[in-house]
Design a protein that fits this description.
The protein contains eleven helices and eleven strands. It is α/β, with parallel strands linked by helices. It starts with a helix and ends in a 22-residue tail after the last helix.
Length: about 270
Amino acid sequence: MKKPLIVATSRIVKLLANITKVLSYPFHWVLPNQRFTLPAHAEPLLKGGTPSRIPRIIWQTNFTDRVTLPVYLNYLFNRLMAPRFEYRFMINEARHAFIAEHYPDILPHYERLQIGAAQADLWRLLVLQRIGGVYLDIDAHQVWPLASVLGTERNELYVTTRKGELSNYFIASAPNNPNLAAVIDQIIVNITGDIATGVFDTTGPGVFNQVLNRVHIPTVSYRHAVHQGSFTNEYFQYIDKREGKWTKQQHQVAVVAKAPASSGEQPPRQG
């Protein structure tokens, strides 16, 4: 009975979210320069709750913390759906500082990534591996209370798409996860190997599907956990970014910059 209820709820949420998205067009037509600030850190809305293996932290990142109304509404909705979760947000510079502090051996590989989305792909794994929590893409929103989706006993949880494949717009994990370590290692191999592929297969979901076996890891369908693009869309997300979305950028610039001839770099092991 629960899954049909979740699906019905998700459809209602999606409908209401799409209505706010449509209404945001006249809002930003009247106020084209109006932006809202995402906080770098926000305490849980409610205290207490049952302890869990996956830390009660939501992580997000974006090229800027000044966002349009749809993106901000998406953020507010996620906060309401996870009231006992702390919120942490990083822009590009904060991501770089985090990796420099906690993963100095990986920083040179991270710096070779020339597209923000690819950098975010690697950062999300490193921050979860170090601290743990739940990563959500900036356009991802929950359709059911996050604490209920995760439970208290899981060490990790991944989302599957309509095709049944793994994606990385939602990742939940306790720190020191061997599965995340394996994905990180493969991404470093992809970077150091100068493989001429796009973001998807170099740092994104393609790596998850290559490295992880869906039979042996806990997964949840997007229908029962988290959707993308209901509150916002490419226009509202990249309105202040001239380069546009990563799908466009990767046709203009290589995902990975060529390594210095004398670097002799070797992939660090995360296990």
